[in-house]
Write a structure and sequence with these properties.
alpha/beta; eight-stranded parallel beta barrel; 11 helices; 8 strands; 50% helix; globular
């Protein structure tokens, strides 16, 4: 498989911090998890610095920037506080996500349509500072078109609805969500956007999404951290990497 066909894997380490924070201790260390992920074949590390600091902390971001050789993708809300943090650290990538304090995890895509002017102003200084900015959106044509108009370089398509439908056995819903993701991957790519995808991906669902030729990167976290309890983080990542590579190889050769 050629390097240009290779699908990148970003490992989200948020829930290593969740386990640490449950006891208020100093371990497990998200930076150590990032190093293990790097050795296991991850192409990047994703960390979501939430406004309420429920998992990743400011000190974690400091540590990741200081000790990580992989690119860091900093997920964050579109607030002045988060913009300031990103401009201070200048991570490789910044992914703008919706955020509600009461949610357990990110529940949906960013509403870009109707908020383009504010988001454009928010993105401009980040892009000028060298951060590759992405918007986490639903697989919807109006959101894709609006994302392009903001000046973002990347869209990350929310795969949660597809994964949930598959997990619940709602196969008609899963098929519809799969088709939306497939079509919007192609549409976003046709507009000149780099396409990423993530949320809720597991060993059972990653192969189908990996087959989309327009998708350049998957960001996966919760499942990998959960699987690491049983098989270790490196082995969990190795298996995800294998499934992604096999699916992409099959798609390229088809």
């Amino acid at each position: 498989m050629r390097e240009l066909d290779r699908l990148r894997l970003g490992v989200n380490i948020d829930h290593v911090a969740t386990v640490r924070n449950a006891r208020g201790s100093s371990y497990p260390d998200p930076v150590r998890a990032a190093r293990i992920a790097q050795e296991a074949g991850a192409d990047g590390i994703t960390a979501h610095l939430r406004e309420d600091r429920r998992h990743i902390s400011d000190a974690d971001i400091e540590g990741l920037m200081a000790h990580l050789s992989l690119p860091l993708n900093l997920e964050m809300a579109a607030t002045s506080e988060m913009q300031g943090i990103a401009l201070r650290h200048r991570p490789h990538a910044v992914c703008i996500v919706p955020e509600k304090r009461e949610e357990r995890t990110t529940e949906g895509g960013l509403e870009v349509s109707g908020d383009e002017s504010r988001l454009s102003d928010f993105i401009a200084p980040l892009a000028h500072a060298g951060c590759r900015v992405s918007l986490f959106i639903a697989a919807d044509p109006s959101q894709v078109e609006a994302a392009r108009r903001t000046g973002a370089a990347v869209v990350e398509l929310h795969t949660g609805a597809y994964c949930d439908a598959r997990s619940d056995g709602r196969f008609d819903d899963a098929r519809r969500e799969f088709e939306r993701l497939r079509d919007m991957s192609a549409f976003a790519h046709s507009l000149g956007l780099e396409v990423h995808a993530g949320h809720g991906l597991t060993y059972d669902t990653v192969r189908s999404i990996s087959a989309f030729p327009e998708v350049a990167e998957l960001n996966i976290g919760h499942f990998l951290i959960g699987e690491a309890v049983f098989r270790g983080l490196a082995e969990a990542i190795n298996e995800m990497r294998r499934l992604m590579d096999d699916s992409r190889r099959e798609a390229v050769s088809a």
